[in-house]
């Protein structure tokens, strides 16, 4: 059968009214974003959000908001990204979804760091750490620790930030995790902050 026949079947079925279809749209947005199609990514994500809201699927709705937040951050719309992430964290908290709440707070911490709101970033990083710990999500625990370390370093607590940085670096190397755009952005800020105040030998000693 040709693609047009399949598309017609999809459009006439209940699939386009399901959370699965909303998630497919959200994943399409992520693929388009990685491929450099920013406009297409925005369109897919907005369609996914609209469908999720229509379905009154709160978890899927906030997943779409998180995706839109990451897209906003990538193009420098930091205030909007913060709003998306904090809204998602609040909803996930009300739904007792610790893992998603931890991820939302970790993203919010990163966005707040870039915005310069370091005390709020620290608070969000701690909230991310608690949520991820409760969910047993080790990857996001490490991400939350990195965000906490970055905020600490930028606030002048360089030695303790370096210790945390070393822990995260070792963990990521051991599991083969590669930082995504948001984590890489704050990691570069962390490394730069440490290098600006600590001697190279001190950084090696603290992060080994």
Commentary on this structure:
It is built from eleven helices and no strands. Helix content is 83%, strand content 0%. Helix 2 runs antiparallel to helix 3, helix 2 runs parallel beside helix 4 (58-74) and helix 6 crosses helix 10. It is an all-alpha fold and 208 residues long. The model is unreliable at 1-12 (pLDDT under 50). The relative contact order is 0.08.
Main sheet summary: none
Radius of gyration of CA atoms, rounded to a whole number = 19 Å
Question: What is the element string, with H for helices and E for strands?
Answer: HHHHHHHHHHH
Name the beta content range: under 5%
- The oligomeric state of the chains shown is single chain
**Can you count the beta strands?**
0
Share of helix, binned: over 70%
Number of helical runs?
11
Mean pLDDT: 91
Net shape: elongated
Structural class: mainly alpha
Q: How far apart, in Å, are the first and last alpha carbons?
A: 58 Å
Which residue ranges are poorly predicted, with pLDDT under 50 across at least 5 consecutive positions? 1-12
Summarize the structure.
With 208 residues, this protein is mainly α.
Which structural traits does this protein have?
208 residues, mainly alpha, elongated
Topology, please?
Layout (H helix, E strand, L loop, with lengths): L2 H9 L7 H16 L3 H17 L3 H17 L3 H17 L3 H18 L2 H18 L2 H17 L3 H18 L5 H17 L2 H8 L1
């Amino acid at each position: 059968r040709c693609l047009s026949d399949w598309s017609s079947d999809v459009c006439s079925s209940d699939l386009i009214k399901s959370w699965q279809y909303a998630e497919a749209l959200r994943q399409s947005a992520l693929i388009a974003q990685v491929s450099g199609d920013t406009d297409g990514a925005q369109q897919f994500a907005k369609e996914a959000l609209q469908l999720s809201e229509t379905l009154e699927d709160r978890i899927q709705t906030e997943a779409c908001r998180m995706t839109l937040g990451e897209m906003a951050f990538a193009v420098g719309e930091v205030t909007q990204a913060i709003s998306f992430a904090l809204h998602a964290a609040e909803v996930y908290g009300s739904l007792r979804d610790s893992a998603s709440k931890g991820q939302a707070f970790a993203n919010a911490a990163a966005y707040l760091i870039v915005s310069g709101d370091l005390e709020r970033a620290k608070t969000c990083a701690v909230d991310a750490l608690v949520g991820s710990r409760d969910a047993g999500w080790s990857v996001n625990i490490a991400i939350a620790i990195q965000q906490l370390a970055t905020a600490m370093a930028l606030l002048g607590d360089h030695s303790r930030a370096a210790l945390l940085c070393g822990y995260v670096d070792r963990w990521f190397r051991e599991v083969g995790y590669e930082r995504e755009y948001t984590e890489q952005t704050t990691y570069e800020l962390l490394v730069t902050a440490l290098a600006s105040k600590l001697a190279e030998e001190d950084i090696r000693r603290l992060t080994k």
